[in-house]
Amino acid sequence: MSYVAAKGGRKAIQAANEAMEYLRTRNTDQSALLLETIKTQLHGLLSRVLSEGGLYSEELAALAIKQAAGDTLEAAYYLRAHRSACPRLGETPVHCGSEMRVIRRVSAAFKDIPGGQILGPTPDYLQRLFRFELLKEDQQAFSEVTQRWFATPGMDTEIPDTFPKVLDALRAEGLLPPAEDAAEKRPFDITREPLVFPLPRSAGLSIMARGETGSVLAMGYSNMRGYGDVHPTVAELRVGYLPITVPHSVTGEPVEAGEILMTECEVVAMFEADEEGAPPVFTLGYGACFGRNEAKAVCMAVLDRSMDIGRKQGPSNPSEDEEFVLLHVDGIESMGFATHYKMPHYITFESDLDRIRQARNAAGKGEDA
Amino acid sequence: MNTAKRKIPFGFIDDQAKREIRRSILKAIAIPGYQTPYSSREMPMARGFGTGGLQLTLSLVGRQDVVKVIDQGSDDSVNAVNIRQFVQDVCEGVQTTLRTQEASLIQTRHRIPEVPLREDQVLVFQVPYPDSLVIVESNEATRKCMHGEGDYSRLLVKLYEDMVHFKKITLSHRYPTQIHTHYVIDPSPIPRYDVPRLHQAPNLFLFGAGREKKIYAVPPYTEARPLVLDDIPFEVEDFTHPETGDRYCCEVCGSDRSFLEEFKQADGGSVWQCSDTDFCASMLEAAEAAEGVI
């Protein structure tokens, strides 16, 4: 009977899964990707998946990338789903980016900053020209780069463990609003508390920190282009390893449990009029995420600023509307919903057909409304 | 890293999450039709594929439960198969069934089973859009106020405008339904045919929107009425032949009282078949048994 709906859902799923696995492994001459290779040679991809997955495990992120064959949305999803099955063992205190062991810090606000600018590893000044010698690269080539790198003059220069924040200098001058005491306020936990708008700022920051890179970029860029008026100056952008402490299970004293690679961006924007007549101060925006993801951190800082404007004055463009920004930047949610349209909608379409037939019928008959 | 297979807890989600979801369910039952916000965990299947329904199912299921999963009324649809398999994998000892009457917990997408459910059964819906007001208002905070005030005037205006433009109300599925005389819910993308079956039903209906992070309920024996204009009666899908006026019958079991799916034929015509595959199979078995007796 030709009209009978396709049966055998289970077999179809199994075959589809096997086809996916075959796609990944079809070249039998190749060796399997090592997680270590992903962690080092694809560190940009690793950073992105760590940040969107919202779970800092380089090992699991690399495995997710391997399983998802490099699809960032899928790979981040493995981390998120894994997280749902994990019990919460404890909470860290609030950490400050000033504790970061920096590998890169730049300020666009001042030519020289206390502690100095450190360009560090950045693709910013790479010329995007193909290096065809990489088509044939061997371990020998890797060793040569390492040897050259360690032979660089000044390699043994002592650098401090931490650097002061550029914002501290501006704050000392009274040009910034006083810092909120973050340690006093318990941050909103988006994974444990229901989202009811308006949200506290910490909830917005958490959502954006896990946001899909492209989505955060698009929303932030819309403000920069003109659907908004933040005009940020990057006071400081830093990349580095932040030591994470947890309370000791017996003494309660903070103990270092490890460190995470992070990107942090602080932007300063123009001042607002104060109704109570206090002297004007600059406004601030903050962005931070796991791994090295500078475009995302900059856009997040701009959005933090633009949503603050929206909260105070009412949103006048999408990037100032916290509901619009925060409910649309999550890659797990947007990807899932976009792909769900491929699923069967036979019933709803049958209802649609019924309505259009009835409406056409009514129009044809000239039925009285 | 330990390469051995990691042990997954019963029901997959951790106990704190289950507790939060159960509390939200209790609140949802206590305030019929109210969209209870909850934090909503990510599931190992994509958002939009039933993660809200799945979280409800996994929070409610116990080892004594018998679970049925349907999509478009069918147990054999790929997504239903996938969810049922997942429940089996992470809930050791839980039985699954294809039979509506045997199930204690049914997770569904887009349909209410044809056979009326009993007091000891729970129907869990997968919900893409938890809020009917989204048709007329995109801002969630504003919609929350409108619900609080019971202000559904803009939905009624939408119905009126439909009548003016089309002489018919164009809302085809997800029909706004008022629960216990106050909150209007989106009953999930069920056809209008299923909406009257929410009214004063003996069983509990639970709605889970995972991506939108809301849980709501129609408790047993609760009023559930489609939102209508006083002088325009609510219409369900019409399965009668436009010329003969005869109702289409299921091509397989011959039923003339079930919700039908349409199958386009090569000659341009259509044939019809029950969307509820278990109902269809039961009808067929009953017919065969009756024949056997003769």
Kindly summarize this structure in a few lines:
The complex is a heterodimer of chains A (369) and B (294). Chain A has 369 residues and is α+β, with helices and mostly antiparallel strands.
List the helices and strands and how they pair.
The complex is a heterodimer of chains A (369) and B (294).
Chain A: H1 9-25, H2 35-41, H3 43-53, H4 58-67, H5 72-84, E1 101-106, H6 139-150, H7 166-172, H8 201-209, H9 213-225, E2 233-247, E3 254-269, E4 283-290, H10 294-313, H11 322-326, H12 331-340, H13 346-365
Antiparallel strand pairs in A: 1-2, 2-3, 3-4
Helix pairs in contact in A: 2-3, 2-4, 3-4, 3-5, 4-5, 8-10, 9-10
Chain B: H1 15-30, E1 36-37, H2 51-60, E2 66-71, H3 78-90, E3 95-96, E4 105-109, E5 122-126, H4 140-148, H5 153-166, E6 177-179, E7 184-185, E8 204-209, E9 214-218, E10 224-226, E11 260-264, E12 270-274, H6 277-293
Parallel strand pairs in B: 2-3, 2-4, 4-5, 5-8
Antiparallel strand pairs in B: 1-9, 6-7, 6-10, 8-9, 11-12
Helix pairs in contact in B: 1-2
Describe this structure in words.
The complex is a heterodimer of chains A (369) and B (294). Chain A has 369 residues and is an alpha+beta fold. Chain A has two domains: 10-84, no CATH class; 97-120 and 162-334, no CATH class. Helices cover 42% and strands 12% of the residues of chain A. Chain A is built from 13 helices and four strands. Chain A has helices at residues 9-25, 35-41, 43-53, 58-67, 72-84, 139-150, 166-172, 201-209, 213-225, 294-313, 322-326, 331-340, 346-365; strands at 101-106, 233-247, 254-269, 283-290. Chain A has a four-stranded antiparallel β-sheet with strand order 1-2-3-4. In chain A, helix 3 (43-53) packs across helix 4 (58-67), helix 4 (58-67) crosses helix 5 (72-84) and helix 9 crosses helix 10. The radius of gyration of chain A is 26 Å and the shape is globular. Residues 1-6 of chain A have low confidence and may be disordered. Chain B is an alpha/beta fold and 294 residues long. Chain B has two domains: 15-226, Rossmann fold, CATH 3.40.50.11310; 238-294, no CATH class. Chain B is built from six helices and twelve strands. Chain B has helices at 15-30, 51-60, 78-90, 140-148, 153-166, 277-293; strands at residues 36-37, 66-71, 95-96, 105-109, 122-126, 177-179, 184-185, 204-209, 214-218, 224-226, 260-264, 270-274. A seven-stranded mixed β-sheet of chain B has the order 1-9-8-5-4-2-3. A three-stranded antiparallel β-sheet of chain B has the order 7-6-10, with no helix packed on it. In chain B, strands 11-12 form a two-stranded antiparallel ribbon. In chain B, helix 3 links the parallel strand 2 (66-71) and strand 3 (95-96). In chain B, helix 1 (15-30) crosses helix 2. Chain B is globular and about 60 Å long. The termini of chain B are far apart. The model of chain B has no long low-confidence stretch (mean pLDDT 94). Chains A and B meet through helix 1, helix 5, helix 12 and helix 13 of A and helix 1, strand 1, helix 3, helix 4 and helix 5 of B.
